[in-house]
Amino acid sequence: MARKTYTREFKLQALKMLTDQGLSVAEVARRLGVTEGSVRTWREAAGEHGAAAFPGHGNPTPAEDELRRLRAENTRLRAERDLLKKAAAYFASPPS
User: Fold this and answer.
1) Pick from 22, 35, 2: which is nearest to 11 by CA?
2) CA-CA distance, 43 to 36, in Å (whole number)?
3) What domains can be seen in the chain, in order of their start residue?
4) Each residue of 3-38: b (16+ CB within 10 Å) or e?
5) How does pLDDT run across 30-59, given as a tens digit for each residue?
6) Burial of 39 by CB count in 10 Å (0-12 exposed, 13-18 middle, 19+ buried)?
7) Alpha helix (H) ranges present in the chain?
8) How many Cβ atoms are within 10 Å of 96's Cβ, its own excluded?
9) Interval 55-80 mean pLDDT
10) What is this structure's pTM?
């Protein structure tokens, strides 16, 4: 079963229903057809991150961007290391 993703606007609409209309988490979840846990998670994320909550996949946070960059660099450096190990082993072996 594929995991359902929701847009930033959809999540903000759900939070607006909680605050402006004074609806309960259960009522908002029922009206929007999502789980109560999702609405609670969105509420917590908005409370922790404020306007920066729900950046989406196209808008990574600076920490996520740096992590992605460092992982790519790590992969590149490992490939270089492995190539140098193979070259050193090749040149160290006696000619046949």
Assistant:
1) 35
2) 11
3) 8-92 (1.10.10)
4) eeeeeeeebeebbebbeeeebebeebbeebebeeeb
5) 999 999 999 999 999 888 887 777 777 666
6) buried
7) 8-19, 25-32, 36-49, 62-92
8) 3
9) 87
10) 0.56
